From TrEMBL:
<dbReference type="Pfam" id="PF03067">
    <property type="entry name" value="LPMO_10"/>
</dbReference>
<protein>
    <submittedName>
        <fullName>Chitin binding protein</fullName>
    </submittedName>
</protein>
<keyword id="KW-0732">Signal</keyword>
<dbReference type="InterPro" id="IPR014756">
    <property type="entry name" value="Ig_E-set"/>
</dbReference>
<feature type="domain" description="Chitin-binding type-4">
    <location>
        <begin position="24"/>
        <end position="169"/>
    </location>
</feature>
<feature type="signal peptide">
    <location>
        <begin position="1"/>
        <end position="23"/>
    </location>
</feature>
<dbReference type="InterPro" id="IPR004302">
    <property type="entry name" value="Cellulose/chitin-bd_N"/>
</dbReference>
<dbReference type="InterPro" id="IPR051024">
    <property type="entry name" value="GlcNAc_Chitin_IntDeg"/>
</dbReference>
Length: 198
């Protein structure tokens, strides 16, 4: 192998080591902050309107942009006061839908109510599986009412990174009169779910 080829190979290895994972995704329903930014749009919400799927940062953050270098507007509460979704939980559950533009091996999906203690309300363990492009979770929000911000984290299995989506809700705890179900075989519901009740 000549010197040029060896240098190119070394550069490729270095690039793969430091570049973000190729997976991308966000909560599309109820609309996350980045979904609102793309679709409404929200004045001053920044460049995430062009890349709602790209709020990626190391795992473990409770900030809406994951405390990464991009999309700080997602953390600016003053921008989002008028952009929320009113929901009536069905038997205490609210359905969250992720849209993945590029899938990746997944460890867990986590959901938190952003309170003083950042209450974890659900975790779904995929055990390294590759999800489809649409992922659906039923998340228990029993005991929560009024305006709440839900942080959804998609934890990638083989990197240090996660994808972050914050969803602003106005929760009406009155049970729906008519139950509805989704009978679309393209939708994915994790069978390995660990629901955490505060």
């Amino acid at each position: 192998m000549n010197l040029f080829a060896l240098s190119a190979f070394a550069f490729a290895i270095l690039y793969m080591a430091v570049s973000p994972v190729s997976a991308h995704g966000y909560v599309s329903d109820p609309p996350s902050r980045q979904a609102f930014c793309r679709d409404v749009p929200v004045p001053g919400c920044g460049d995430v309107k062009y890349e709602p799927q790209s709020s990626e940062a190391p795992k473990g953050s409770f900030l809406c942009n994951g405390d990464g270098s991009r999309f700080p507007q997602l953390n600016d509460e003053s921008l989002w006061g008028n952009y929320f979704t009113t929901v009536q939980p069905d038997n205490g559950l609210v359905t969250f839908t992720w849209t993945l533009t590029v899938a990746h091996a997944t460890s867990t999906w986590e959901y938190f109510v952003l309170t003083a203690g950042n209450t974890q309300v659900a975790s779904f363990n995929d055990g390294g599986a590759m999800p489809p492009t649409t992922v659906v979770h039923d998340v228990p929000l029993v005991g929560f009412a009024g305006r709440q911000t839900i942080l959804a984290r998609w934890n990638i299995a083989d990197t240090i990174n996660a994808f972050y989506s914050c969803v602003d809700l106005d929760i009406d705890p009155v049970r729906k009169a008519n139950n509805t179900c989704i009978a679309d075989t393209d939708l994915y519901r994790s069978d390995q779910q660990n629901v955490l009740v505060a």
